Amino acid sequence: MSAPLPSPVSPLDANPARRVQARRCARHPDREAVARCPDCGGAFCRECVSEHAGRVLCASCLARATANDALPNRPRRNLARIRRAAVPCAGFLLLWWAFYGLGALLLKIPPDFHEGTIWQRPEGDRKP
Q: In 3D, which of 62, 13, 23, 18 has the Cα closest to residue 44?
């Protein structure tokens, strides 16, 4: 003889834990449901649910979620290759620009300044 099923819970019952406990597992009707799958909305017993990525999922939703996680992500791989090549090139161009700017700045300094004679010449004779 099987145990009698509990009486249905009234829709006015505000306690969600009581509503889930009064339900039966979708796969095992003789077992009490302990969790509801957030993806499909079904109520399941402890054996039918497992945790994945911080959520409690039923077996079919878990299989679907892990299948989606296992799919290769080709665009990201291609972007990673491009990024690996672009970062050193960008670094080289940045350094080249910095040294070019430093060289241009040094070329604007008059030669008299390097010789130390710029301070000895009269103000009007200095080259700009």
A: 23
Same domain, 97 and 49: no
Q: Are residues 8 and 42 in the same domain?
A: yes
Give the pLDDT confidence of 28-77 residue by residue, as tens digits.
889 888 888 988 888 889 888 988 888 888 888 888 888 776 666 566 67
CB 61 within 8 A of CB 40: yes
Those residues with Cβ within 8 angstroms of residue 126's Cβ, 6 or more apart along the chain or in another chain: 110, 112, 118
- Per DSSP, 25 falls in state -
**3-state SS, residue 105:** helix
Structure-token match 């030669």, residue found:
111
Q: How many CA atoms lie within 13 A of 66 on its CB side?
A: 9
Q: pTM of the predicted model, to two decimals?
A: 0.39
